[in-house]
Amino acid sequence: MACGWIETVVVPFPGSPRPTLGVEWEIALVDRVTRDLSNTAAEVFDAVANLAGPEDPRITKELLRNTVELVTGIHSTVGEAMDDLDESLDLLRRAANPLGVDLICAGTHPFAQWSTQLVTRTPDYDELIERTQWWGRQMLIWGVHVHVGCPRRRRCSRSSTRCCSGTRTCSPCLRRHRCGRASTPGTRVTAH
C-alpha cells in the first residue's frame, strides 16, 4: 500500500514460540547541580561495571553520551519485564548517584543545547550521523520501546491495528505509518 511517500514492504516473519515482550527504556543523564544534560555515560558505565561486573547487557549505550538505555530480557509477562526494569534502574541509580548524575525520562529536556551533546562513537552511530547530519545531532528525545513477540503474523497484525486505532490526532495515512514502524512484524515502512 502506498500513502504519499510511505510504502509498505513485506519481509519474512520468523514468529516466536509463544507471546513474549521485551522493553527498552532510554534514560537521560542530568547534572544534579546545573540540571543540564550530562555527557557522562562512559563514567556511568564504569560505575555500573564496578557494582555489577564488567558486562551488564541490561544497561547499554545510546547515540548520545547523555543517554543510557535499560534493556530487559525476553519475558512472558509485563510483571516480569517490570521487575527486570526495576532491578536495572536500581543499579543505574546506585552507579549515577556518586557521580552527581540524576536520571530523567521526560521525553525531552527543557533547555539543553543540542550542539553541546557528544555522540557515542561506533560505526553504526557514525553512519547514522553521516546520513542524518544536523537532524540526527539534535534529537534530544528519550522514550520507551516495547517489543512484542507473537507466534503468528496474523495475530501480530491484528494486535497492532487495535493498539494504533486509538490514535486520533493524526491522519489515517500517518496512523498506518506509525503502526507499521512501531510494531507490525511482517511489514516494514520505508521512505522513498
Question: What labels describe this entry?
Answer:
22% strand, 6 helices, 192 residues, 36% helix, 8 strands, single chain, alpha+beta, globular, five-stranded antiparallel sheet, three-stranded antiparallel sheet
Backbone CA Rg: 19 Å
Based on DSSP secondary structure assignment, what is the total number of beta strands?
Answer: 8
**Helix and strand composition category:** alpha+beta
> What value does the average pLDDT take?
76
With helices defined by DSSP (H or I, 4 residues minimum), what is the helix count? 6
Span between N and C termini?
A: 13 Å
- Outline type: globular
What order do the helices and strands follow?
EEEHEEHEHHEHHE
What proportion of the residues form beta strands (DSSP E)?
15-25%
The major sheet is characterized as:
5 strands, antiparallel
Residue share in helices? 25-40%
Spans of at least 5 consecutive residues whose pLDDT stays below 50 are 165-192
